[in-house]
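Hallway conversation turned thread

IA: we were arguing at lunch whether anyone had actually written out ABC transporter permease end to end. Turns out nobody had. So, for the record, here is the sequence (277 residues) and right after it the structure tokens. Reply here if something looks off.
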Amino acid sequence: MSTTATSETPAPVKNKLSPRRRAQRIRWIQYAVLVLVVLALILTVDWKAVHTSFFNAEDIKLTFTSGLGTAVKNTLLYTVGAFVIGLILGTILALMRLSSVGPYRWIATAWIEFFRGLPALLVLLVFGTLSIPFPGLVIPFDPYGTVWLGLGIVASAYMAETIRAGIQAVSKGQVEAARSLGMTAGAATRKVVLPQALRVVIPPLTNELILLIKDSSLVFILGISAGGFELTKYGRDLGNQTASLTPLTVAGLCYLFITLPLSLLVRRMEARQKKER
């Protein structure tokens, strides 16, 4: 009895995509979807209406010649003043949070949690109506002083936590070395800890500055006169006069021209810090 060897042909193996090819195919599908969405928007938008409502040439000219420079100046003044107050108060609160004295820590914690939980709009409204419960009270440099205090106090609650994290990031060895050289605890904090901490927290503090620029748009709640208008209030009032959204569009572009360079600066500082690490 003879046996014959039978050779079995292997089943065809399906061609599977490699992970790299699969990722490439998914990426091309995403590109195609994006192109289709953009094309749909381009084909469905009424560009004539967009031009008339948002980019009217006459309204753009009117916006630039009716006090836009004053609105930009006021926006920057409101922002810088609030940032300075927030930075000073935030530094004090951060040191209080790290203090060995219990009441200091409790007060700082209560302040931070309270003002982080309140909308900036409500805080501004309270400061704008302080003359009602306190007759005769006059905040210096009003309306700038009112805005500086309102936005600055809210910003201080956020800056305090940022600065506290920066202080805690400084090595304890730095403090011990300063104390070994005869420095007091206060001098070591001022000359060694705070300069290093502020260097670490500059990027997040710059982000806080950007937020303050946008929060300055809340000034409208105070009912200020035309000379104190910031960009949003200026654009809204002029838009009501012209029955057009072009002034608000110009105001929005002004915000972008101010904040985009700051955002770029933050990214560069963060990249530099990563390289130094």
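OS: looked through it. The first helix runs from residue 19 to 44.
IA: good, adding that to the notes. The radius of gyration is 29 Å.
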